[in-house]
Amino acid sequence: QVQLVESGGGLVQAGGSLRLSCAASGRTFSNYNMGWFRQAPGKEREFVAAVNWSGGSTYYTDSVKGRFTISRDNSKNTVYLQMNSLRPEDTAVYYCARGGRSFLRGSTLSAKTTEYDYWGQGTQVTVSS
């Protein structure tokens, strides 16, 4: 069983920064792509960013390009989301998720929630104007 635990959320003013962390249990963390998603009240969960199993490839939704950076440290079983120049529209619960297929079976970075099999409980990010 894989467990994902997010941390680092909070309240920040517009233009500020936060760094989210997602710690994963299990011995095979480095075999899987990881993603960050977010869900605002009354809206569907949406893709934010993904990183491949090695950390060598990343993928972002257009609205966060140039402001957010996803990275991972496989020695610590942790994936990060550095968020800069935050805007009120970034307010949401942020979730990390594990890709559903290991690189050994062929995996690609995806923005689809259905391509991820394990999810954390989420961490709240609130950006005030």
Describe the structure.
The structure is a single chain. The protein has 129 residues and is an all-beta fold. The chain is 0% helix and 50% strand. The protein contains no helices and eleven strands. It has strands spanning 4-7, 10-13, 18-24, 32-39, 46-51, 58-60, 68-73, 78-83, 92-102, 116-119, 123-128. The strands form two sheets. Strands 2, 4, 5, 6, 9, 10 and 11 form a seven-stranded mixed beta sheet that branches. Strands 1-3-8-7 form a four-stranded antiparallel beta sheet, with no helix packed on it. A hairpin with a 6-residue loop joins strand 4 (32-39) and strand 5. The chain is globular and about 45 Å long. It starts with a strand and ends with a strand. 33% of the residues are buried. The model has no long low-confidence stretch (mean pLDDT 96).
Largest pleated sheet:
7 strands, mixed
Structural class: mainly beta
Shape: globular
Give the overall pLDDT as a whole number: 96
How far is the first residue's CA from the last residue's CA? 40 Å
> What is the beta-strand fraction?
over 45%
Cα-atom radius of gyration? 14 Å
Helix content estimate? under 10%
In short:
Helix content is 0%, strand content 50%. The protein is mostly beta strands and 129 residues long.
Q: Could you name the key traits of this structure?
A:
single chain, 129 residues, mainly beta, 4-stranded antiparallel beta sheet, 50% strand
